[in-house]
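Fold it.
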Amino acid sequence: MEIERKYLVKFMPDLSGAQVKKIEQGYLCRKPVVRIRKSNVDYILTYKSRAGLSQDIAIKNEEVELPLTAEAYIHLKEKIDGELVMKTRYVLPLDGGKRAELDVFEGGLYGLVFVEVEFETEAEAKAFEPPEWFGRDVSCEEAFSNAYLSEVKSFEEWKKCFGGDL
């Protein structure tokens, strides 16, 4: 089970010492989510399902990850629906042993930045006090899901469709 909350970013934190991951991911299916991802030198096929799970406090998914070979990833990449999502992820320590995963989008989504935190339980997610650099909680807003983002061609297009205040 994956339980996470997602936030906009008020200002960029100090990234020195952050673990850095170059990520590209594409979607073979969106409901349920079947995703391929390249993260640095790792290749992963992920299945996510929200079926029967409440989404009122945090994003909750049943999630299964399977390793892929580079060759399988390249083969499946040709079959994705929509756009390939590209981003740099900075993994930063937070108080209480949690980690912030700060995603800085690239390519057509350049300009979009948000941060996610994963939790063991829904109660832990509900009790979380975000640090000062976190902005508005967008956990339950579909327009901030990577699957949704793969359906738009650019950050400008996304802003027009979303109409939100970043």
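The chain is about 15% helix and 45% strand.
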